[in-house]
Design goal:
- Helix 4 packs across helix 6 and helix 6 crosses helix 8.
- With about 190 residues, this protein is mainly alpha-helical.
- The longest helix is centred in the middle third of the chain and has 27 residues.
- It is globular.
């Protein structure tokens, strides 16, 4: 029996070679892994989230090209693209919710009359997204680690495998990026 990793690699190579039917084989092979990634990400979302992991996987799959997949360089390239697609979907949903909150025809309520439990998850997500875009310009490798760890929910070991890095390097990149992002978000709020 062919393992999941070699099967994914074989299918990606077939897609790159121009075999159009190979793209149809890809989703069944990667679906469970994409669903696990989506579930891990959705577990971190605020309660009452309307998007379900299955819907996130399907929307990400469509953004990746559906049954007409691009020529992925390798397994890591595919899963990094899937992680980025999921991140963008969640960012867009957060932005839509923010638009509704800030004037989308809703009735104005005096904030002194309500209690706020903590910082708004959507606002925090958008702050991190903007800081992450700045980090990606400065240090793309560390930004990829953040995307896979924070937005997709992969472990250090899984990120190391996906990016072809050592687990220790992933740990160092993650530690650096967390501090960098914290400072970037804090500095943006101070402006």
């Amino acid at each position: 029996m062919v393992s999941g990793v070699s099967s994914v690699t074989r299918i990606l190579e077939a897609i790159q070679a121009g075999q159009t039917r190979a793209a149809e084989e890809l989703l069944p092979v990667v679906y469970d892994e994409l669903r696990r990634i989506a579930r891990a990400k959705m577990a971190r979302e605020q309660p009452g989230q309307t998007l379900q992991p299955t819907a996130l996987v399907h929307e990400a799959w469509l953004r990746l090209g559906g049954d007409t997949q691009a020529a992925w360089q390798n397994r890591a390239h595919f899963f990094a693209a899937a992680a980025e697609a999921m991140r963008r979907i969640l960012i867009e949903k957060a932005r839509r919710r923010q638009r509704v909150r800030h004037g989308g025809g809703l009735e104005r309520t005096d904030l002194d009359e309500i209690e706020i439990a903590g910082p708004e998850a959507d606002e925090r997500l958008l702050e991190i997204h903007e800081a992450l875009d700045r980090l990606a310009q400065e240090d793309p490798a560390r930004a990829e680690v953040v995307k896979l760890r924070y937005f997709v929910g992969l472990s250090d070991r899984e990120v190391a495998e996906a990016l072809g890095l050592s687990e220790r390097t992933v740990e160092r990149h993650w530690a650096y990026a967390k501090v960098w992002l914290l400072r970037a978000v804090r500095d943006a709020k101070a402006v």
